[in-house]
Amino acid sequence: MRAGDNEQKALTEELVGRFEVGQLLSQDQNGRRIAVHGKIDGEQGVLILERTAFVAETREQIEAFQTRIMHVQNLGDNDIYRWYLASTHPGDEKSPAHDVKINLIWPCTEQHIKKYSSQILRMVTETPEIYRDHIRPYMNAKREEGRLNWVFNILEGRTEQEDVILRDKGHGPADGFLMLPDLNWDRKTMNSLHLLALVERRDIWSLRDLKKKHIPWLKYLRQRLLEGTVKMYPDLEQDQLKLYVHYQPTYYHFHVHIVNVMLEAGSTQATGKAFGLENIISQLETIEGDEESGMADVSLTYYLGEANELWTNIYAPLKQGNKPVA
User: Fold this and answer.
1) Does 255 participate in catalysis according to the annotation?
2) Domain ranges of the chain
3) How many CB atoms lie within 10 A of CB 114?
4) The pLDDT of residue 4
5) Which of 8, 10, 153, 256 is the S-S candidate for 158 at Cβ 3.0 to 4.6 Å?
6) CA angle, 256 as apex, 306 and 31 as ends, to 5°?
């Protein structure tokens, strides 16, 4: 590199230090990037700051990062799930600046490991017949394994009751539900608000169990979730919220996600994973048939990872013209 190039590089690098901060223009939903308005030598400028990605290509790098974690603050725990805030720099012991959100699943299952592993995705179409003959029995087997203990702990008042934002008994015993922060939300950044509503009834495992007769209940549920959220967080309005359910869901007990519409749509909100609650209600209204007709009668297209048991045991064999694994 020539001397002139070195001088230019140094001058360019000095500009960052000379930037006079004015006001925050925006902050992304995960808190990794901010845009700041300011000046350098009287001229306006915009400084965009973004945290670098994790350097974790080797086990040694991961271990080195882990040793820097300090000031761990427990946000809550339920069954095998725990979540925390922590810092990666010394800071003030009494009021540390938390810059890391930590979720811990322990002891975990093989399914957890598969879920969080990088894998190729596949789009599949689940017909009513595939759902009836293969998916529904799979759901039943998973429920019988006791994977819903953490959900029942909340619903039955054993854990996380201090986090419950809204508990509504509805118009009858089958209408009840509660709402609390999702474990992936840091509980302070409004742009990334993420709440979870758990219904008390246990006969609805997923959106597949929703029928035309549930439309009034779903409309009531939607309205109360919107009202409860803006009451708890008055800086938000109802039209700043998005309600959706997952299919396939992580666990087979009906629940609704409530997020700020500003939340960047990652894979969990993508087409093939998230189904808008309003759209589900509309689809139920247009499905032909009596009150017992519903989402079990339509085909649904969604994606699966190749490590997912639904792919390895059902869809991959079907694609190859073979019988699914029981």
Assistant:
1) yes
2) 3-50, 59-105, 118-319
3) 15
4) 62
5) 153
6) 75
Residue 221 scores a pLDDT above 90: yes
Quote the tokens at residue 257.
């996600």
pLDDT at 317: 97
For 250, how many CA atoms within 13 A lie in the half-sphere containing its CB? Answer: 13
pTM of this structure: 0.79
* pLDDT of 222 strictly over 90: yes
Give the residue-averaged pLDDT of 217-226.
Answer: 96
How many C-beta neighbours within 10 Å does residue 73 have? 11
What does the DSSP assignment read for 117-181? Answer: S---EEEEEE-HHHIIIIIHHHHHHHHHTTTTHHHHHHHTTSS-GGG--EEE-TTSTTT-EEEEE
Sort residue 148 into left (φ over 0), alpha (ψ -120 to 50) or beta: alpha
1 has pLDDT over 70: no
**Was domain 118-319 assigned CATH 3.40.47.10?**
no
Rounded (10°) CA dihedral 55, 58, 64, 70: 70
What spatial distance separates the first Cα and last Cα of the chain, rounded to whole Å? 65
Q: Supply φ then ψ for residue 182, to 5 degrees.
A: -70, 145
Name residue 167's amino acid: R
Residue type, 44: Q
Model confidence over 94-131: pLDDT tens digits?
777 788 888 888 988 888 888 888 889 999 999 999 99
Cα 263 from Cα 193, distance rounded (Å): 7
Residue type, 278: E
**Span 42-67, average pLDDT:** 81
Count of residues in the chain: 326
Rg (CA), the chain: 24
Question: Treating both helix axes as pointing N-terminal to C-terminal, what angle do 215-232 and 277-286 enclose, rounded to 10 degrees?
Answer: 160
Q: Which of 194, 214, 255, 257 is catalytic?
A: 255
Distance (Å, whole) CA 245 – CA 211: 15
- Phi, psi at residue 317, to the nearest 5°? -60, -40
What H or E segment, with its residue span, contains residue 77?
strand 70-78
